Amino acid sequence: MPHPTDSAPPRLLLTVTGGQLVAAAPADPAAAVAPPAGGAPRGRPSRDGRAAGRLAPYARLFATPGTRAFVLPGLLARLPAGMFGVAAVIMLTAHRDSYALAGAVVATGLVASTVCAPLIARLVDRYGQARVAVPAAAVTATGHLGLIACVTLDAPVWSWFCAQLLTAAQPNLGAMSRARWAHLHPGTAAGAIEARHTANALEQAMDELCFMGGPMLAAVLCTALFPEAGTLTAALLMLGGTLAFAARRETEPPAVRRTAPGPPPLRTRGIPPLLLTFLCVGSLFGAMEVVTVAFADERGQQAWAGAVLAAQAAGSAVAGLLFGLLRPRGDARARFTRCVAAMAVLMALLPLAARAESLALLAPVLLIAGMATAPTMVTGMTLIQRVTPVGRLNEGMTLAVAALLGGIAVGAASGGALVDAHGAVAAYLLPMSAACLAASVAAVTRGRATAR
Q1: How many domains does the chain have?
Q2: SS (HEC) of the chain
Q3: In the predicted model, what is the mean pLDDT of the chain?
């Protein structure tokens, strides 16, 4: 059954029809509890009814017209985000056997993204999603295709870095999708807050699905076809998905041509401490990706690197979906601090698992370790949304993503250098250390990042 709200709406009957969850208001209130013929006894909900009640928050989200039309293209456009890093590392190491060089090239694009992404998001807020996302995606695809050309034609290494700089124009479809949910469910009423919490959980789960399927798809394409196949496919998916997402104009938030009053998001109270924590969390992700690819390569099992990384994303996706079913309670900042601390505790399992020298053992450990990721990101993005000035939502959320990208760049470059110097097993100390640093920063800055 749906959760009760302050306004006590009419009771809804949730049924499963043709594989879809359908909500209908019965003419007779007794029909909402009457069991079907041959079903469960009166007064005891059927198994399908209990399942429908648990999924009610997500059913209410998609009851809004036009939501499916932007969610599915957005998911397609974001899948390459989980492909580009692994695909680039495999492609570059196939041509130049150096993880340090591969990590540096990937880090260059990510560092550039930390500067370009907030600027592109500011343009999105001012001129609209469709007018900015499409040309930005075209520039990004040009950068990835240029990198393929430079590598295959054996161009000078400096040209690899130049091509990678163009990829910094990639539009943040995750922030745009979250902005659409916030536009559809505005205000501070209990129902709107709960809807945004569920939407953020759904978006985070989709992000994790992209980082679950993306690395696997990239690794399979690069090893089964040719080293450049992963980057080529990801560029085409990103461009096509962005075009389809931008075409759905009915749910697009209106552009705000005038700058919102007050300080910009970067100077808004509460945001800098959150960005610092996101920076540390990003370095965890970047280091773990490069080190895991190297760990698999050292054992002659590089094709399985994507599957192992997908285990971490799978744990996070499941945790995110379950987290979205819960009503947000208590102080969000305290909840965020606890989530980051849980992530640090679980990431401490990685160095222990790596010492066993087995991918089969590393995968379930990553699955467990990933279960704290989605709750951390969902709560963090909720805090960002609460403190970002009106009319600057894309910019505020993209700043959080930019901090993550900056951390990923640092983690990728540091992880690659540490692998070349000491091997992958020792390098797993880096993501664990980054998680502990993130927990420390979140705890120390908790009082300075209070959301309104």
Answers
A1: 2
A2: CCCCCCCCCCCCEEEEECCEEEEECCCCHHHHCCCCCCCCCCCCCCHHHHHHHHCHHHHHHHCCCCHHHHHHHHHHHHHHHHCHHHHHHHHHHHHCCCHHHHHHHHHHHHHHHHHHHHHHHHHHHHHCHHHHHHHHHHHHHHHHHHHHHHHHCCCCHHHHHHHHHHHHHCCCHHHHHHHHHHHHCCCCCHHHHHHHHHHHHHHHHHHHHHHHHHHHHHHHHHHHCCCCHHHHHHHHHHHHHHHHHHCCCCCCCCCCCCCCCCCCHHHCCCHHHHHHHHHHHHHHHHHHHHHHHHHHHHCCCHHHHHHHHHHHHHHHHHHHHHHHCCCCCCCHHHHHHHHHHHHHHHHCHHHHHHCCCCHHHHHHHHHHHHHHHHHHHHHHHHHHHHHCCCCCHHHHHHHHHHHHHHHHHHHHHHHHHHHHHHCHHHHCHHHHHHHHHHHHHHHHCHHHCCCC
A3: 76
Q: Residue 45 falls within a domain, yes or no?
A: no
Same domain, 344 and 416: yes
Which pLDDT tens digit goes with each residue over 2-17? Answer: 344 343 444 333 333 3
Here the CATH number for the domain that contains residue 146 is: 1.20.1250.20
Do 289 and 374 fall into the same domain?
Answer: yes
For 298-336, the pLDDT digits (tens) are 877 766 777 787 787 778 777 777 777 766 666 778 888
Q: Are residues 8 and 155 in the same domain?
A: no
List the domain range (segments joined by +) for residue 21. 1-36+50-54
Contact 291, 415 (CB under 8 A): yes
pTM score: 0.66
142 shares a domain with 14: no
Asked if 101 and 16 sit in the same domain, the reply is: no
Residue length, the chain? 452
- 429/283 same-domain check: yes
Q: What's the pLDDT at 300? A: 76
Query: Does residue 43 form part of some domain?
Result: no
